């Protein structure tokens, strides 16, 4: 799917249904880690470099997801809890107040199998997205219509139609299960301090996006893919970077 964060939508209902069986942190980072190879590199980012065989999943993707989880709860959760609106703070408090040491000690096995489950769910969804072979569709339509234009339309439909549908469904599930039930707009008003933090995040995103635009190998025919991948990676990088900076500021003030 072109939208990495849409994968999160497919693991949230699982956590809601089997609350004690899975670690939400494990599910969350397991659901996005398989895309790290296209998100955080400057070579052609339309093609994965992960093989996704047993060795890749267990010795590369799993550790990446695990260390992302640890890094998030050590670096980001405290800052994010302070910088989100009141309504979200109350709703996400249990997730953003985890004591990492005790959490890992008491839930290590649960975290690991939650990550593995989310990784393979991600891969299954990606496989469904690529069931249609775009080149085969192109050749078949061209043979039927003798029109390059029509064949190209079906070619891009074969590439994007299923992924976009699954992405929309993923975001819908994320909205349904991860957003507060009562969406009163006044509860989403940011304080000055919170606004400054998110403004800092946006500026960092812009700088990272510019760097990727200037340095990344791009395919002219897939500009949309590049934009989505770049914005996703810029957001993840900016959240970690800005939270790290704020952690140093808080530590200095304390």
Features:
254 residues; mainly alpha; 10 helices; 0% strand
Structure description:
- There is one protein chain.
- The chain has 254 residues and is an all-alpha fold.
- The chain has one domain.
- The protein has ten helices and no strands.
- The protein has helices spanning 6-17, 24-32, 36-39, 54-83, 86-92, 100-129, 134-145, 148-178, 192-215, 223-253.
- Helix 4 crosses helix 6 and helix 6 (100-129) runs antiparallel to helix 8.
- The protein is globular.
- The mean pLDDT is 88.
User: Which overall shape is indicated by the principal axes computed on the Cα atoms?
Assistant: globular
Radius of gyration: 20 Å
Percent of residues in helical segments?
over 70%
Tally of domains: 1
Q: Briefly note the structural class of the backbone.
A: mainly alpha
Identify low-pLDDT runs.
Answer: none
Total number of beta strands: 0
Tell me about the largest β-sheet.
none
Task: Give the terminus-to-terminus CA distance.
Answer: 43 Å
* Overall pLDDT level: 88
Measured by DSSP, the beta-strand proportion falls in under 5%
Write down the secondary-structure element order.
Answer: HHHHHHHHHH
The number of distinct helices, counting runs of at least 4 residues, comes to: 10
């Amino acid at each position: 799917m072109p939208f990495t964060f849409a994968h999160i939508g497919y693991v949230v209902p699982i956590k809601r249904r089997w609350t004690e069986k899975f670690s939400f942190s494990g599910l969350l980072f397991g659901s996005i880690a398989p895309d790290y190879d296209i998100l955080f590199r400057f070579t052609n980012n339309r093609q994965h470099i992960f093989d996704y065989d047993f060795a890749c999943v267990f010795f590369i993707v799993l550790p990446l997801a695990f260390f992302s989880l640890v890094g998030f709860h050590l670096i980001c959760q405290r800052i994010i809890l302070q910088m989100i609106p009141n309504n979200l703070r109350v709703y996400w408090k249990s997730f953003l107040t985890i004591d990492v040491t005790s959490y890992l000690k008491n839930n290590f096995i649960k975290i690991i199998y939650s990550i593995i489950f989310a990784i393979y769910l991600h891969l299954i969804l990606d496989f469904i997205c690529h069931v249609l072979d775009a080149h085969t569709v192109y050749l078949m339509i061209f043979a039927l219509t003798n029109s390059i234009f029509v064949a190209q339309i079906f070619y891009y439909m074969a590439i994007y139609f299923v992924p976009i549908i699954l992405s929309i469904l993923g975001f819908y599930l994320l909205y349904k299960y991860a957003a507060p039930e009562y969406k009163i707009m006044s509860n989403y008003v940011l304080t000055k301090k919170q606004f400054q933090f998110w403004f800092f995040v946006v500026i960092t995103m812009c700088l990272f996006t510019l760097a990727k635009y200037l340095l990344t190998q791009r395919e002219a025919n897939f500009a949309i893919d590049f934009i989505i991948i770049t914005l996703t990676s810029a957001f993840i990088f900016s959240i970690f970077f800005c939270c790290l900076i704020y952690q140093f500021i808080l530590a200095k003030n304390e």
